[in-house]
Each structure stands twice: as structure tokens, then as C-alpha cells.
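$ run holo --ligand "MF3" --emit C-alpha cells
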Amino acid sequence: MITIKSQHALELMAHAGRVLAEMFVQIGEIIKPDLATIEIDSWIDSYLRRHNLLSSMRGYMGYKHVSCISLNDEVVHGVPSKQVTLKAGDLVKIDVCASYKGYCADMARAFIVSHAKPEIARFISCAQAALDAGIAQVKAGERLGSVSAAIQKEVEKNGFGVVREFAGHGIGKSMHEDPEILNYGTSGVGPIMRSGMAFAIEPMITMGDYKVYVTPDKWTVKTIDSSLAMHVEDTVIVTDQGPKIITRI
Ligand code: MF3
Ligand code: CO
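-- output --
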């Protein structure tokens, strides 16, 4: 069942989203070579506490951290570690989900340590454009398949791959609610979007083959061909006028 949120619930979600959006601006400023991913996670942990947000990730299926930090060919769910340090040229995806007074927002952004080669910059831009294209389809009365199809079209026209095994999701009191929001599909099919629904939309794309696997740590998702992967995510509220993105300033 896809829940319709009350105005009060949507305001609390929007507050959580704004805190995350502001946090990610600062994350962009602390990313630098030699930083361990566990240090980024600790920084996020203290930021969330200072802003009265509760991590939705810590404790989820035994997960011990407040963020997922995925480098290069890691797609999503990379586990912060003191052994993993950033180096120039790394493509770093950081995903954080947290709640304010019980209501969640989910957000992921990508960063390049130091500066990006043009081909990587184009890959990053494509994932961001795919996210925007998907969000642009969010409107009361439209069908969810149009979001999925718009994402797929944007990715494939650039020659990149869409990961099939993972998807976006409804969000609210829980990090993961119905429906599942695939990053590929057919326009005009699927559930009808209604005002007051909230979705976490999160294209996961690859430079090469879209096939992925879960590593022995049971979390980290990597591309099978070791090609680079991208992931960005926003939380969006459906309104009669269109999308309201709560994880952007
Ligand atoms: N925020 C992720 C998502 O978009 C979930 C991460 S799994 C966790 O669905 F265990 F790390 F929380
Ligand atoms: Co998500």
C-alpha cells in the first residue's frame, strides 16, 4: 500500500530533507585525499545528532553505520571503514537516510576527490540528469512507470547501463515503503501517483555492463565488470502541481 501523508508528516519529512541537503554541502567541503570513509561516517553521525535527526540506517538489518559510502566500481551500500581512504580521482557516492520526529528523508550525492576526468564528469552528469528526468515525471494523476522510463531513457541515450537489482522506494515513517521505483520501465504504466505520496528516487548506473553482485561483506554492491558506478538520490513529495524535492535547498 502506498501511504498518503498528512501535511504535518510532510513538513517533518521536509525538515529532515533540508537538514540533509545542507549537510551534503558541507560534506563536499570536507572530502579530500587521505580521509578514511569511517571518518566521513563519524562526521555525519555528529552532524545528525546536532540537528536532532535519527539515522534510519544504523540498526537496519544489523547495519552499524549512519551512511553508505561507495567508491568507484561500488554501486551502493559501501560500508564505511578505517581501512578505506580517499585518493585523488576517486568517485565517492554517499547515501544518508535519517528521520526528524519519526519522519524520514533519504539522499545520496556523488563527489570526485580532487578533480574529474571529462569522461567521468560526463558520467556523473548523466546520473544527475537521469534523476532530474525521473523527478520531472512526478505529478498527481500520472503513473509511476513514467518516472522509471524517463530515468532509463536518459541513461541509455548516453550509452550507460541501468542497474536492475536495486530500486528507489516509497518513504515516510519508514526508510523503505511501497512502492518499489525501478530505474527502468514503461511510460504510462504502474500505480497512479497521488498528492501526499513521497518517493525516494535513486538511479544507479554503470559505465559498462549493468550487472552487479554483493561482496562477501554482505552489503557492498559492485559492478561485475569493475566499471565505474554512479548513484544519486532525492526524496520527493507528489503534489497536484508536480514534484516537491525536499532534499534540495
Ligand atoms: N538509503 C539506502 C536506500 O536508498 C538504504 C541503505 S541500506 C542501509 O535505500 F542499511 F545502509 F541502511
Ligand atoms: Co533510498
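-- notes --
The pocket of MF3 (ligand 1) is lined by residues 57, 60-61, 63, 68, 77, 95, 97, 106, 200, 202, 233 (CB under 6 Å).
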